[in-house]
Design a protein that fits this description.
It is a single chain. By secondary structure, this protein is mainly β. A hairpin with a 4-residue loop joins strand 8 (90-106) and strand 9 (111-121). It is built from 1 helix and 9 strands. The relative contact order is 0.22. It is elongated.
């Protein structure tokens, strides 16, 4: 099984070391009454600014590694997510997993490919 890392943890349990290019993004959350008026001018009512999202990907996983990763999220709508901030200091936020999937590469060998998921700050 590949190594784990304490850089990224789910409920204080280390994740498997992700492949390179962990994508980190942020977006503002607008209220439902935000939108354009009849003249096309946008009126934004921002509820929250800079809600963070991390996109993780793993090119190849064994069945054991896949089970380990899925066990981190099992039965939890939200969880405590640990990550390093811009200065490398550990931070924790409540988060949830969204948009996840995997390709079952070979049932005979127990190989999986293209495991991807997003962790989104609550």
């Amino acid at each position: 099984m590949r190594a784990t890392t304490e850089l990224f943890m789910i409920d204080r349990i280390p994740m498997l070391v992700p492949d390179e290019n962990v994508e980190i993004s942020a977006e503002d959350i607008d209220a439902s009454d935000s939108g354009r008026d009849e003249s096309g001018v946008m009126h934004r009512f921002v509820v929250r600014r800079g809600v963070r999202k991390w996109t993780f990907s793993y090119a190849y996983l064994t069945e054991e590694e896949y089970r380990y990763m899925e066990s981190l999220f099992a039965g939890a709508d939200t969880f405590l997510f640990a990550f390093p901030d811009r200065n490398g200091n550990p931070k924790e936020v409540m988060a949830y997993r969204s948009k996840y999937g995997i390709l079952w590469h070979s049932a005979a060998t127990g190989q999986y490919r293209n495991y991807q998921f997003n962790v989104v700050e609550c």
